[in-house]
Write a structure and sequence with these properties.
By secondary structure, this protein is an alpha/beta fold. The chain has one domain (26-287): Rossmann fold. 30% of the residues lie in helices and 12% in strands. It has a six-stranded parallel sheet with strand order 2-1-3-4-5-6, with helices on both faces. Helix 4 (102-116) links the parallel strand 3 (95-100) and strand 4 (121-127). Helix 6 (178-184) crosses helix 7 (193-213). The longest helix is centred in the middle third of the chain and has 21 residues, at 193-213. It is globular and about 50 Å long.
């Protein structure tokens, strides 16, 4: 007697892990490149202002930690930072980059490298990143001047925080404050204070030479230049360079296809201090990449009901379909 068999159950359709769809719609991080300034990272104030909506990742120039020799070329610095960006955002672009001063110059070159790999770059933000004037000689190494300018630039964070916490007294000769300067620049091991200070000086000197020699190649990168209304640099840092003071800080000559300039109150020193920090954050928010929500899936089709006798009475014609809110063409922001 044949035995009836029950058909094997169909495998359940595979579903994406919980939250995967939400993660795919999260905005990508904003990578902020550190520049001539030593620790703390100059991107910290902006990262705090954007913390509710955007994750910021800090990138620092090679050589400052003493793990490797400093690099004296902007493109070489960008090549060094490229693996960190790719590993931190392994799913690919669009990438978002930015930097303050010289950090913006490195961020621009990093964007060009990503473009060369076929990766989309949503935006590159240049925060008062002036280009050097052409024709100037490469600055000579001057360790004493480098220490003085590093200590002064470290005081930038004190201005942004509204209180001096660096521990360096600029009314006292800096030659008597080696330990305080080393600590202010991030040294934690007393046995390495001197080595840390030497590494910081070497990195600063190499970066100043790279800055002076850099000429940005043209690109189709979407660039937003955020600059203060007052072009003055009250502290005159770095003193060995002559930087552009044109309305676009020299970038108008770089052959950038998509360059937007936004002007805020203040100057180079105060742009990340209250209240101007929030002007910067508002501009950044306006241009950050914001993925559109995925459209809702169409309901499963159902078999058509059997046709019965046509009802008597008036028949209302169907009106035009309405577009669902949130679905449609997203224009350029």
């Amino acid at each position: 007697m044949p035995v009836a068999t029950r058909p094997a159950p169909r495998p359940a359709p595979r579903r994406a892990p919980a939250g995967a769809a939400a993660r795919s719609r999260r905005p990508p991080p904003l990578f902020l490149v550190g520049g001539l300034e030593g620790p703390p990272h100059p991107g910290l104030p902006l990262a705090g202002a954007l913390s509710v909506s955007t994750v910021c990742r800090g990138l620092d120039l090679p050589g400052r930690d003493g793990a490797r020799a400093p690099l004296g070329d902007v493109r070489a610095m960008a090549v060094h930072l490229l693996p960190s960006v790719l590993l931190d955002q392994p799913g690919g672009g669009p990438y978002q980059l930015g930097g303050y001063g010289f950090g913006g110059v490195v961020a621009y070159e990093l964007g060009r490298l990503l473009r060369g790999l076929g990766q989309p770059v949503a935006r590159v933000f240049l925060f008062d990143a002036a280009l050097p004037l052409p024709g100037q000689a490469s600055p000579a190494d001057n360790p004493k001047l480098a220490v003085r300018e590093l200590a002064r630039m470290r005081h930038l964070a004190c201005v942004w925080q509204g209180a001096c916490r660096c521990g360096v007294d600029h009314g006292v000769p800096l030659s008597t404050q080696g330990v305080a300067i080393a600590r202010a620049l991030g040294a934690t091991d007393p046995d390495r204070y001197e080595d840390h200070l030497l590494d910081a000086v070497d990195t600063y000197s190499a970066a100043v030479r790279a800055y002076a020699a850099y000429r940005p190649p043209p690109s189709d990168l979407p660039v937003v230049l955020v600059r203060p209304a007052n072009p003055a640099n009250p502290w005159g840092q770095p003193s060995q360079l002559r930087l552009s003071t044109s309305p676009c800080l020299g970038w108008e000559n770089a052959g950038i296809a998509d360059l937007t300039t936004a002007v805020i109150p203040g100057d180079h020193i105060t742009m990340f201090a209250n209240p101007y920090l929030w002007d910067v954050a508002t501009i950044v928010q306006r241009f950050l990449f914001n993925p559109q929500p995925a459209p809702r899936p169409a309901p499963a089709s159902r078999p058509a009901p059997a046709l019965g006798p046509a009802p008597t009475g008036r028949v209302r014609a169907a009106g035009p379909d309405r577009q669902r809110p949130g679905v449609g063409h997203a224009g350029r922001r």
